[in-house]
Amino acid sequence: MTNDQFLSLFRTMLIIRHTEEELARCHQRGLIFGACHTYVGQEAISTGVCAHLTNDDPIFSTHRGHGHALAKGMPPRELMAELFGRATGCSRGRGGSMHLFSPEIGMMGTSGIVGPCILQACGGGYSSKLMKTGRVAAAFFGDGAVNNGAFHEGLNMAAIWKLPVLFICENNQFATEVPFSYSSGSPHVGRRAANYGLPGFEVDGNDVLAVTEVAREAVARARSGGGATLIECKTYRTRAHAEGMGDFTYRTREQVDEWKLRCPIASLRQRLLTEFGIAEAQLQQVESEITALVAESRQFAESSPLPDAATAAVNVYATRKTGIPARPASNADGQNRPSSGDPSRVITFTQATHEALSEEMAVNPTIFVMGEGIGIRGGNFKTTAGLYDLYGPERLCDTPISERGFVGLAGGAAMTGTRPVIDFMFADFILDSVGEIVNQIAKMQYMSSGRLKMPVLLRGCIGIGHSAATHHSGSYYAMYAQVPGLRVVVPSNAYDAKGLLKHALRCDDPVMFLEHREILTTKCHVPTEDYEIEFGRAAIVRVGRDVTVVALARMVHLTLSVCEELERDGISVELVDPRTVSPLDTDTILQSVAKTGRLLIVDEPPAPCGFAAEIAAQVTDAGFDDLDAPIRRLTGVFTPTPYSPPLEAAVVPTAAMIADAIRSLVKE
Amino acid sequence: MSHEIVIPRLGWSMEEGTFVGWLKKDGDLVRRGDAVFELEGEKASQDIEAVDEGILRIPPTGPKPGSLLKVGAVVGYLVAAGEETLWTVPSPMTNSPPALESALPPAAAPSVRRQAREAGIAINDVAGTGPGGRVMAADVHRTRTSPQQQEPVTALPIANPRPTHGRSAVASPRARRVAAELGLNWSTLTGTGANGRIRERDVRAAAASGHSSTSAARAGQRLPLTSRRRVIAQRMVASRQQTVPVTLTTKADATNLVNLREQFKRREPLKSVGGSTPIPSYQDIITKLVAEVLKRHPRLASRWDEDAIVLPADDELHLGLAVDTEEGLLVPVIRNVGGLSLSELAGQSRRLADQARAGKLVATEMQGGVFTITNLGAFGIDAFTPVINLPEAAILGLGAIRREPVVLDDGQIAARHQLTLSLTFDHRIVDGAPAARFLQDVVNAIANPSAWLLG
Fold this sequence. Notes:
- The complex is a heterodimer.
- By secondary structure, chain A is of the alpha/beta class.
- Chain A folds into 3 domains: about 5-305, Thiamin diphosphate (ThDP)-binding fold, Pyr/PP domains (Rossmann fold); about 345-525, Rossmann fold; about 540-665, 3-Layer(aba) Sandwich (Rossmann fold).
- Chain A is built from 24 helices and 22 strands.
- In chain A, helix 1 packs across helix 2, helix 2 (about 45-50) packs parallel to helix 3 and helix 21 crosses helix 22.
- The longest helix of chain A has 26 residues, at about 5-30.
- Mean pLDDT of chain A is about 95; it is low at about 320-335.
- By secondary structure, chain B is of the alpha+beta class.
- Among the domains of chain B are: about 5-80, CATH 2.40.50.100; about 245-455, 2-Layer Sandwich (Chloramphenicol Acetyltransferase).
- Chain B has helices spanning about 110-120, 135-145, 175-180, 200-210, 225-240, 255-265, 280-295, 340-360, 430-445, 450-455, and strands spanning about 5, 15-20, 30, 35-40, 45-50, 55, 70, 75-80, 245-255, 270, 275, 305, 310, 320, 325, 330, 335, 370-375, 395-405, 415-425.
- A 6-stranded mixed β-sheet of chain B has the order 9-20-19-18-14-17. A 4-stranded antiparallel β-sheet of chain B has the order 1-8-6-3, with no helix packed on it. A 4-stranded antiparallel β-sheet of chain B has the order 5-4-2-7, with no helix packed on it.
- The longest helix of chain B is centred in the last third of the chain and has 17 residues, at about 340-360.
- The termini of chain B are far apart.
- Mean pLDDT of chain B is about 80; it is low at about 90-105 and about 145-170.
- Classes of the chains: A alpha/beta, B alpha+beta.
- The interface of A and B includes residues 628 and 629 of A.
């Protein structure tokens, strides 16, 4: 290493230290609104690793991320302004200490949850591998993360797919305040790598030269296709878990003082003077430069404007499409279907979604599919049949049963420029990954102020039927519709499914695409030409006069089956299929209710806090004067789904129940 | 310099009024004396005129039609051009988009809608000349008098322009909305929905069958008091408590009166500005005769004023006409009846009665009366005991004109038109004999109207 390189390491560590100490002072004075987790004592690790990374190499981090951001090249002023809650902060005031974003320099985000960065780094590695960019992703996490499932699933996926990833474990010996010696059966992390078939290292995390050396090898291995490396850096944080917290309930002042003597900056300084012949004056010059830089940064932060409250809800969703291949003019409205082509062309729901996926994969090389059995096998429901032969194993990637792992990976892949399609087979399965969906994927566009796009398509089956029992029959869309940042799509027919899936594959938002298993073989006319159905546009499946019924998926079919019978009895039903639960087209529903004065919502899942409740509340609010009768809900029974046919039939609305509910409603 | 526009006090006991609507738009230039908004007081609605000049600024929180406002409440501002208001409003200089053609029925006050219905005119066919195309009473009147208007009378319900609170029945929100749109009082309907809930179909069925909101008040129903009803009650009680009323009844021979009116009917209609002159009604002729008689008996038109009895001058013979309206009794006043021709009087009494029924009387049109005439003859009533309209001294009640057998002076029996008169007077002011002499002269005047009118 050259003297300049040594001085660069010294400079970076010093920037981290001075910035953190200044932030600690500001926190004490009440200038920082929320939490502040400092990196003091651990500076050598991020400095040594990031020395080998470029702005194109993505890193992912946790709550103790100031040092990672600064080592990756974030100016201290942006970090300080963020903690001061300013519009000029790296996350525009949306994140604070635990949510630092600067994708422009490869700082893809820090997280308040300890495991996800491991999975996201796998996603960054997967993008690199798929797009052959040669980029290396790195995850920085503490010893607290290594007993989390994400560590296990992430390292395994990185190993089997030889992902270009560095897993940097900063073992500072405490997960918040729980000692690693207590929470792990083995005091060492690095040697766990062998269990996954990965190279693993255990180094002195306070020795920046040692970290630099092992990281250099790991980065070179990753760039050359050699796969991932686990590096455990044994270290110690010499300040409290977070500023303002008591520190001596779980460790002693003597222990902390002992580690302070092993300060990584002081030891490098000593070696620069004694071993590498760098002059004291040169080091002092660096120190005074950095003192000035940090003072200027604090002044910048304090004098920066606070964000405009009017922007608080901006960037929840992507505002524009990017990276979409040129298309023929698409027909976005399902009411006005393309009429050219063969009108007798009738295909199933599954065939329609298969067409959409296949067509989009043909024109968009960033699309890849992950799931269990979606490769050669072609998917449990034939969702990817034949595509493996066309696009190969990297774009049709079979997974281990690691739902949290590959959903988290999908998030990281989307953040780094590819478009993952997660085929989860049954909606029940990905409940293991809800944290990744809700905390990471859904929130990422917002927390990054729209600088990251999250085109993650999560697709799979929902619905009760055929004695699938309780782990293969859930719907859960109401739960996902409560999450800002997600789109939730529940099509009822082949035509809609194709148009909606096309839109999902072209938009930049994370989409939960839920396909009711009991209608996968239903058929309708689907044109060969390209079309797309925008989200938030309901379909009026049947025009009527007396009562509005809102239903999704299979309930649309059930309702439709009783409409003629009711018509003969003088009851004219208008059937509205919102098609997407989020966004929800309340305008169309309100217009229909304004006409009919009556509203029944038929929904398969149980009622509490559900889809029907939401519509009822909105219509009561905005359409109160149009109501000629109370709003009715007909929903599934509030119970897990039983197996035996008579039990199963008893928990789902039937056609007869729908007809009865409509008759009862018009008598109100 | 901005001026506040406030809710004025329209009568002595008015504490609050119902805001009917703006007559100017935000951004309009308002000159002193321009009517700015319409306000409904205790007894009638009134166009409120600006006392200042400036550009009208209506705050976003400004009053909505139908809102009840305290006297003195600020409803808007008049500002100088370019002057900023306290709230942010679009500049009047910016070009606002032209109003879109609306498929909705034109705006019109409920009372105007009722007038239109009563006249058999579809409100949609009336060209509104009010602000924003709002249909005004005059527009309905003009349409009614134009000869091409021959639409059959549609049997529509009588409007109850004020929502009735404290309902005893339950109606769906939609039924309530539709009832309001149709000007129908849903609280009087019978519901066919669950638990007797009134539904849209009930309202529409009632509308189609010509349901009247007032005549169908159901037995056992509790009708909430309107502000007008309260005022009427207060005034009636005050009259009973403060006066010593005595009622005299007698019969007058109305044969010549009936003949006189026949002569008016046979006369070629006189054309005058604003339409043909109406034929005077019996009440109009009697009003004119009473004014002549009152010149000889001014004490019957006087008022009790602490330490004096105040007599009217001849040109102060302002006579009140009791008018029955949907909302209760109103007494508009015809000024200086002695100074009016019969035709003029007939025109004024018709206009005032129309305005009273339309709820469009201005407060001053109900003030200053010295004597009141009330007429229940149309209902077949003969004698009754009218209640003095304070602070007046007397009130004359007119009964039905009937053909009755009368023994003539020569002993023969003949069929003659007979009219029963009921005079209630305040015995504090007038004694029995002078009151009787007044009534005697009224009888004489009715028996010989030409002599009294031409003399």
